[in-house]
Amino acid sequence: MYPNLNDLLNYRNDKIIARYNIDYPNTEMSGEEAWQELMKFIWLSHKHKIDRENYPENINLDFSCVIHEEMSDIDNMWHTFLLFTKDYHQFCHTYLNGAFLHHDPLSVNNDLISEEQYALELTCYLSYIHEHLGEETLVRWFK
After folding, report:
1. 102 Rama class: left (phi>0) / alpha (psi -120 to 50) / beta
2. Going by C-beta distance under 8 Å and a sequence separation of 6 or more, which residues neighbour residue 46?
3. Element (H, E) at 89
4. Are 43 and 5 a contacting pair, CB within 8 Å?
5. Is the dihedral of CA 38, 35, 31, 141 positive or negative?
6. Which residues lie below 8 Å from residue 76, measured CB to CB, with a gap of 6+?
7. Span 88-130, pLDDT tens digits
8. pLDDT above 60 (res 67)
9. Percentages helix, strand, coil for the chain, rounded to the nearest 5?
10. Burial class (CB in 10 A: 0-12, 13-18, 19+), 70
């Protein structure tokens, strides 16, 4: 079962947003904006995981939901959220049906896949974002 995106978007944690604003005062996104985008990313990542489990034969799901370089404000907010381990644990339990979404950094060695494979996976990822979160989110994440 997918978590409800609106539930995640309505979840607030002011102490995490305040900490982000202190630690990252010169970012493009404010703490509130980065928080909302992180909630979308977490929702999308969890949905993608469930979709892959339910539809393993769907080649359009053959990509990883990862934070790309252009999404650094979202990544910084996630790092901030992870500092508050009890809050993060409770959030995952409450809003992700008990699933714990791990933060796994990308390896710096991207030579494991061809450029063509990378382009195909990125295209699938971008299409998935567009389909489920819309063009505005896609542009915001990858501008």
Report:
1. beta
2. 2, 3, 96, 99, 101
3. helix 85-95
4. yes
5. positive
6. 20, 23, 24, 27, 34
7. 999 999 999 888 887 877 655 556 789 999 999 999 999 999 9
8. yes
9. 65, 0, 35
10. exposed
Residue with tokens 């949905």: 47
CB 73 within 8 Å of CB 37: yes
Domain ranges (residues) in the chain = 5-142
Q: Is 101 left (phi over 0), alpha (psi -120 to 50) or beta?
A: beta
> How far is the C-alpha of 84 from the C-alpha of 81, rounded, in Å?
6
| Residue given tokens 């489920």 in the structure block | 132
Distance CA 56, CA 58 (A): 6
Pairwise CA distance, residues 9 & 16, whole Å: 15
**Which tokens in the block code for residue 52?**
């892959």
pTM: 0.93
